[in-house]
Amino acid sequence: SCSYQRFVSCYRCFYRLQPQLTRSIYDQFISQLQASIKEEIQEVKNEGNLEGLFSSLDKIVEEAKNREEPAWRPSGIPEQDVRSTMVPYFLKHRSHLRRILREKEEENRKVAESVLMGRDRIAELQQLIQAHQQAWQ
């Protein structure tokens, strides 16, 4: 095989002396490497709870079969992905803040009218007091 030939080319001197031992070492190395890779994959599966995640992903896929609009997929361009997610949120938040601002402005207008009416009432009362004071004198 091609990988064995590369292995032999790396250990050419050793291969010339004992070709059968070199093949045996190669076979042992490959089997241990495969076992190690399988073990690593199993550890990643166990640590990341991948089987549970895959089953939940399968459930999501099943639920999405009845949906008519397409699911969101990343475009591969981070700026576009963030924009497509964040812009609708910020627009909704902006309209919410504008509504609150209108409510506060209306509330402030009413308070300002109330203050002006209070000042007018105070001015009327002061004139009334002065009129009573002059009439009394």
TrEMBL record:
Chief location category: nucleus
Keywords annotated in UniProt: Cell cycle, Cell division, Centromere, Chromosome, Kinetochore, Mitosis, Nucleus
Organism domain of life: Eukaryota
Subcellular location: Chromosome, Centromere, Kinetochore; Nucleus
GO CC list: MIS12/MIND type complex; nucleus
A Pfam family that the UniProt record links to this protein: Nnf1
Keyword Cell cycle attached: yes
Record-level GO BP terms: cell division; chromosome segregation
Database matches in PANTHER family: POLYAMINE-MODULATED FACTOR 1 (PTHR15459)
Record-given protein name: PMF1 factor
Organismal lineage: Eukaryota, Metazoa, Chordata, Craniata, Vertebrata
